[in-house]
Inverse folding.
């Protein structure tokens, strides 16, 4: 980036735990914005209620789901089912605790990158539990489909997160953001960045990774989810997408660096922009078949991202 | 004080989660009870300032249990474990073994002459732990790793009933390969 303004090397301040409510509020606003954008894009693609109608559709949908009676199934494992459905939202909230908003962070963990990684692995368990809990064949198929995708995307995603950490010589998210003086990691680690974005779509069960909740298996993992359960599950997917976009900002897009605006504003601007791209991509990419994606992950993505790590490591050693 | 209570509370969750593995009646619940137990242990390790080890424990164990659940349901039950089933067998022998193990370990705790602390913990305990575990044995570890990977690959190759001759024909020239499950990159 030809950014003439030197990044102020402001140390990261840990704010009081009460500010977690503000972080949740921001995440909530991002979820609503993403749902509205998706509604508008859906309306434009499907010729439905028009763009304005599409924009407000999420609100109508939420109201409908809140009034809907809860569907029950025979011999459902209700405990695991509810944990799975509600867990996505919780996981997304735990992800954003380590993302610094400019100079403020809620949880300045020295291994924040690993924390994010651990949280995205939680999604494996949660989506499968959602599929398992309903005691319904289609929803169980959906759960297995997600794990099949998981085996393909998780390792490339992990090694994509390794690249910025190597250069920053730290697993602290704030330190990774601070290490990108003038040149964003997204610019000179494009493979890691793209694989990371693919991983975000994957752990949000989004776009090409949606077969786990596909219409060909009657809604897959969410087939039997109804009412508030379904609303929370869908909000959780949007929240994961938003958390993934927010985490990309300190990892690949320079954190709060930018001219004129303060750091926190740049973090939000970049997050919203990336989230919009991710939402838009939903209708632009074909579905990855779960039975075929693993080979793509292990034969293409993993070698590509390992090569990226090697290049990054060589550059890092050469620079020091 | 507060962190002491949290530490012991998490410890309780770990123990109860571990016990629940044998108490519940479904493979899915047993597997995820074990996952919960491991997550609690990971959180305890966070309290010991071993942040990296703690977070990695959570990461690896949740991932492993997600896969484990699939295999448990597939192989461990009455073909398959989609119905409620007992998680225990050979109860009397198991109780005897459990009580004997508990007594031996508890006696060990009480009878060992525990050393008093010398010195103080270093600033970076994770680094210190790594050096204590690996430091002088790095060469051994570096040699063992590829041997272990080779063993795993060899084991899978020997266990797989299809060979490259099944895939590529007797002269190894058949393209694309004849696979029951086609892959994603057209090998």
């Amino acid at each position: 980036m030809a950014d003439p303004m030197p990044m102020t090397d402001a140390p990261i301040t840990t704010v009081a735990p009460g500010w977690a409510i503000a972080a949740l509020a921001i995440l909530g606003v991002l979820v609503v914005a993403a749902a509205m954008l998706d509604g508008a894009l859906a309306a434009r693609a499907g010729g439905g209620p028009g763009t304005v109608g599409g924009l407000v559709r999420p609100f109508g949908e939420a109201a409908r789901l809140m009034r809907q009676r809860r569907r029950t199934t025979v011999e459902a494992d209700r405990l695991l089912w509810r944990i799975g459905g509600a867990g996505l939202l919780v996981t997304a909230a735990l992800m954003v605790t380590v993302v610094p908003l400019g100079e403020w962070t809620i949880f300045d963990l020295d291994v924040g990158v690993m924390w994010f990684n651990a949280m995205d692995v939680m999604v494996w368990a949660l989506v499968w539990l959602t599929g398992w809990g309903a005691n319904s064949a289609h929803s169980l198929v959906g759960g297995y489909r997600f794990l099949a995708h998981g085996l393909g995307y998780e390792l490339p995603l992990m090694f994509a997160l390794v690249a910025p950490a190597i250069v920053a010589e730290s697993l602290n998210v704030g330190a990774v953001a601070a290490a990108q003086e003038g040149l964003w990691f997204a610019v000179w680690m494009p493979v890691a960045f793209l694989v990371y974005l693919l991983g975000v779509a994957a752990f949000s069960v989004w776009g090409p990774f949606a077969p786990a909740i596909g219409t060909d298996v009657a809604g897959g993992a969410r087939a039997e989810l109804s009412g508030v359960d379904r609303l929370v599950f869908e909000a959780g997917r949007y929240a994961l997408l938003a958390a993934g976009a927010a985490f990309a900002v300190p990892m690949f897009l320079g954190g709060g660096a930018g001219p004129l605006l303060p750091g926190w504003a740049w973090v939000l601007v970049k997050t919203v922009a990336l989230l919009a791209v991710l939402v838009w991509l939903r209708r632009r990419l074909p579905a990855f078949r779960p039975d075929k994606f693993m080979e793509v992950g292990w034969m293409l993505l993993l070698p590509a991202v390992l090569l990226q790590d090697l290049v990054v490591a060589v550059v890092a050693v050469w620079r020091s | 004080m507060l962190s002491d209570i949290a530490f012991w509370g998490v410890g309780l969750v770990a123990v109860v989660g571990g016990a629940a593995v044998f108490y519940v009646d479904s493979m899915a619940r047993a597997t995820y009870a074990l996952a919960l137990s491991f997550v609690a242990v990971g959180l305890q390790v966070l309290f010991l300032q071993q942040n990296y080890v703690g977070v990695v424990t959570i990461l690896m164990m949740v991932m492993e249990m997600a896969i484990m659940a699939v295999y448990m349901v597939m192989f461990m039950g009455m073909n398959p474990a989609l119905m409620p089933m007992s998680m225990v067998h050979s109860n009397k022998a198991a109780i005897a073994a459990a009580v004997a193990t508990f007594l031996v370990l508890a006696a060990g705790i009480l009878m060992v002459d525990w050393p008093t602390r010398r010195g103080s913990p270093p600033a970076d305990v994770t680094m210190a732990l790594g050096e204590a575990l690996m430091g002088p044995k790095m060469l051994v570890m570096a040699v063992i790793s590829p041997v272990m990977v080779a063993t795993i690959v060899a084991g899978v190759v020997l266990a797989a009933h299809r060979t490259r001759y099944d895939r590529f024909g007797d002269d190894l020239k058949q393209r694309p390969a004849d696979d029951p499950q086609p892959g994603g990159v057209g090998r």
About this structure: Chain A has one domain: 13-319.
